Amino acid sequence: MTYLITGAAGFVGFHLCKRLLSEGKKVIGIDNLNDYYDVKLKKNRIKFLEELSSDIENWNFFEVDLIDKLKLEKIFNNYKPSIIINLAAQAGVRYSIDNPEIYLNSNIIGFGNILECCRKYSIENFLFASSSSVYGANTLVPFNEDHNVDHPVSLYAASKKSNEIIAHSYSHLFKIPITGLRLFTVYGPWGRPDMAPMIFAKSIFEKVAINIFNYGKMKRDFTYIDDVIEGIIRCSNKPATPDYEFDRSKPNPSTSLAPFRIFNLGNSEPIQIMKFIEVLEDIIGIKAIKNFSEMQPGDVETTYADCSKVNDWIDFIPQTSLIKGIEIFIDWYKDYYFEKKNI
Ligand SMILES: NC(=O)c1ccc[n+]([C@@H]2O[C@H](COP(=O)([O-])OP(=O)(O)OC[C@H]3O[C@@H](n4cnc5c(N)ncnc54)[C@H](O)[C@@H]3O)[C@@H](O)[C@H]2O)c1
């Protein structure tokens, strides 16, 4: 069985490949290594995977853009992957305000290209990363998959919601088992430099001010990377099935008569940003310099996952406490940046 992971040089993709390779699985990684954030970090993740797999030859990496349909098809044709996990996407809410085209290209056209390959080459299971951001302006928490998510407040969120709808049509028409996982603020080693945990840690170490939006009143359902990977792996082992109780007169947004499922994959424990910073300060041993400001356009105040559906589906309960997760993250941060492994 061969896995194809798109976005393999990204934060989540890297950890997923690492886990699969360490279990002896055959993995094909795809990434365009774009410069949205530090390309060296992406290359170092790939280098790590190469070293991990040097003796088992289970790893193939291709620097390919999802937009390049011909190259994608060639990879599908040559390797016949059976489990496809699409993590490649232009991420980031704020960046989507000034760079809409990148989101339309990677997240919509690129996503469509992958689905076309899945349609053409018979595959066993397709998973893709959606996002908590689809809940948009909703204030009813915890966010549940049954809630209406038709009010995105950023193009990033709109692209993720579009993925869910487009994926459903492929699942319905071509009977492809598809699972969309709505991830909630993932953090941990090898994290994303554009996200709060890395920005905060860097600022605390460098003793520069942290911008704290919405005057610190934001809450995020921070989810540790290993828990997210466990959820993805379990879903990859359990292709979506039709929901035989699906009622067309009262359609359930998260299931279907097609083999299609949408799940939240979060920690179900929203943490106030100030609390997150406090834990970072304690573990790093330096007080943060705080600069409070108003909420940014496209942002939402609180994310909070109701994970009862995914828990029922794959028996998934996150295992990592915030303190443990931040300890591991900071240990990696010091090792990577202070021991000069970032070159
Ligand atoms: N990290 C989170 O907290 C979080 C939360 C919600 C959803 N997600 C989603 O999970 C997935 C993985 O996120 P991540 O945190 O690893 O992000 P990431 O940016 O670290 O990884 C995405 C990778 O995809 C690659 N990529 C982007 N566009 C591409 C294209 N057109 N062709 C080929 N490769 C391309 C990038 O180079 C990058 O390495 C994304 O779909 C993201 O939207 C992540």
Automatic annotation (TrEMBL):
SUPFAM superfamilies for this protein: NAD(P)-binding Rossmann-fold domains
Annotated GO MF terms: dTDP-glucose 4,6-dehydratase activity
Top-level class of the enzyme under EC nomenclature: lyase
Coiled-coil intervals: none
Classification via Pfam families: Epimerase
Keyword annotations of the record: Lyase, NAD
EC number: 4.2.1.46
Domain NAD-dependent epimerase/dehydratase residue range list: 4-240
Name recorded for this polypeptide: dTDP-glucose 4,6-dehydratase
Species for this entry: Prochlorococcus marinus str. MIT 9201
